[in-house]
Amino acid sequence: MKKILAFIVWFFCILGYSQVGINTTDPKAQLEIQSSNQASPSNTDGLLIPKVDTFPATNPGANQNGMLVFLTTTVGANSPGFYYWDNTTSAWIPIGNNSNLGWNLNGNIITATNFIGSTNNQDVLFKRNNLQAGRIGSINTAFGTESFISNTTGNFNSAFGSGSLKNNTTGSNNTAIGRRAMELTTTGRDNAALGFLSMRNNTTGNNNSAFGSNALLNNTAGNS
Fold first, then answer.
1. Neighbours of 93 (CB within 10 A)
2. Domain boundaries, the chain
3. With a threshold of 0.85, does the pTM exceed it?
4. Residue 19, Cα to own-chain centre: how many angstroms?
5. Residue 70 to residues 28, 44, 83, 212, Cα–Cα distance (Å)
6. Which tens digits make up the pLDDT trace of 180-218?
7. What φ, ψ does residue 117 adopt, rounded to 5°?
8. Is 114 exposed, middle or buried (0-12, 13-18, 19+ CB in 10 A)?
9. Are the C-beta atoms of 195 and 213 separated by less than 8 Å?
10. What contacts 69, CB < 8 A, 6 or more positions away?
């Protein structure tokens, strides 16, 4: 009897420290589950995480940190999906597509504190077809495909319109509004151009004002 009891104790001790395999006799981790057929699985080959219709009325504790559940219904702002318990923040954190931490492409319910932008001192960039289409900075602002894309040290410039101030490198205090307005300007400064192609060919001209379509189109280096 003592030998049988000792064997049982030994057997369960081995189980307690062994790796566990389901559908496999050679598990490669503490728990490994294999499908019935990896190449052609059945519709029941998978793992079902505990389902809940709502989160527990009493929050889990530190011992449940990382606990995973599947929420079956919408609860407040939380949509159905996988959630894990984060004891540090005392919150259920969504996983994957149901995460409300991302920005929904189909629209979002926002609060007065939500924003699109940065929390550090860096320019905010926008792109279209992987080309710069907007830049919001502390000293320069540009909107429009390829507007203001060549700047190196120019300051206090505003460019609005596709290709506006496209080639500006060191020019400062310029305002270009309109498609390709001041497009070829590189070092010109203190200019204002408003209108389609206005001051388009200006490169180094300073202190000019152009208003209207094609205004001062062929001015290249003239100064007012």
1. 14
2. 51-98, 122-215
3. no
4. 39
5. 26, 17, 6, 61
6. 999 999 999 999 999 999 999 999 999 999 999 999 999
7. 160, -160
8. exposed
9. yes
10. 49, 50, 51, 52, 55, 82, 83, 84, 85, 92
